[in-house]
């Protein structure tokens, strides 16, 4: 069991495919604007972070959005955009110890996990080019990995469109081979307590996101192109999740 916080378990780190659960309220309160928030003892919801967008879902009948509270480290749920008007929109009736039913938007979770895992895979392919990770974004419609070439000479070569296209083709071949091999995606904690995510033996990185079980869960990992922007290589991609097995 992962304890990010002694008051809350992070179930989303343990099982990407768990989409509903009965649990209890571990903390509840109001923010500075008067809006009610609730934290679950066993938390299903991935908050936005690490380049991955937040889950959406419901607590009972109430539409909620998770946010990590920087003060406590707890993932707290607030009323979602589609919720009825009014402070807390129904969450204000909940108190510590109350039993609740929580569920996430499963389709969105799978899409986020697919895009996130594909991001690791694209990063692995790009590292094989000698590039170093500089940033990533796993949001639907804008997914990309940004990397730094190993030096001025390597960067200069990439100003050539043909060179970039050949690099993109090598990345695509790497991705296709890894998906065909159905490499497993696993997570473990290292000696320092960091969660490290691995794809077979081609990639390992500290990460707090949600991932698919193995690369055969990915459908249509598409690298749309390699660009050079302000000295950084930008690899744009998209991915989807195969219908759940
Ligand atoms: Zn990850």
From TrEMBL:
User: Do the record's keywords include Hydrolase?
Assistant: yes
Q: Which SUPFAM superfamilies match?
A: ThrRS/AlaRS common domain, Translation proteins
Q: One Pfam match, by short name?
A: tRNA_SAD
**Keyword vocabulary terms for this entry:** Hydrolase
Q: Which GO terms describe its biological process?
A: tRNA aminoacylation
Residue limits of the Threonyl/alanyl tRNA synthetase SAD domain?
194-236
Q: Which SMART domains match?
A: tRNA_SAD (SM00863)
In terms of InterPro entries, this protein maps to: Alanyl-tRNA_Editing_Enzymes (IPR051335), Thr/Ala-tRNA-synth_IIc_edit (IPR018163), Transl_B-barrel_sf (IPR009000), tRNA_SAD (IPR012947)
> What PANTHER family has UniProt attached to this entry?
ALANYL-TRNA EDITING PROTEIN, THREONYL AND ALANYL TRNA SYNTHETASE SECOND ADDITIONAL DOMAIN-CONTAINING PROTEIN
Q: What is this protein called?
A: Metal-dependent hydrolase
Q: What is the lineage of its organism?
A: Bacteria, Bacillati, Actinomycetota, Actinomycetes, Streptosporangiales
């Amino acid at each position: 069991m992962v304890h990010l916080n002694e008051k809350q378990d992070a179930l989303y780190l343990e099982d990407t495919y768990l989409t509903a659960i009965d649990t209890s309220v571990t903390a509840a309160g109001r923010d500075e604007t008067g809006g009610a928030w609730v934290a679950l003892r066993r938390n299903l919801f991935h908050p936005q972070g690490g380049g991955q967008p937040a889950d959406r879902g419901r607590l009972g009948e109430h539409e909620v959005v998770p946010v990590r509270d920087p003060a406590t480290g707890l993932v707290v749920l607030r009323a979602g955009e589609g919720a009825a008007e009014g402070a807390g929109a129904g969450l204000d009736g909940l108190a510590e110890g109350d039993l609740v039913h929580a569920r996430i938007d499963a389709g969105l979770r799978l899409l986020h996990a697919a895009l996130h895992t594909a991001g690791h895979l694209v990063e692995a392919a790009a590292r094989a080019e000698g590039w170093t990770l500089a940033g990533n974004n796993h949001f639907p419609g804008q997914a990309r990995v940004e990397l730094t070439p190993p030096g001025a000479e390597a960067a200069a070569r990439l100003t050539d469109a043909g060179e970039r296209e050949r690099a993109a083709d090598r990345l695509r071949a790497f991705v296709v081979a890894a998906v065909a091999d159905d490499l497993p995606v696993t997570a473990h904690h290292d000696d320092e307590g960091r969660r490290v995510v691995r794809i077979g033996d081609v990639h390992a990185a500290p990460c707090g996101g949600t991932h698919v079980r193995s690369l055969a869960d990915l459908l249509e990992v598409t690298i749309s192109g390699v660009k050079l922007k302000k000295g950084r290589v930008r690899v744009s991609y998209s991915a989807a999740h195969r219908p759940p097995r």
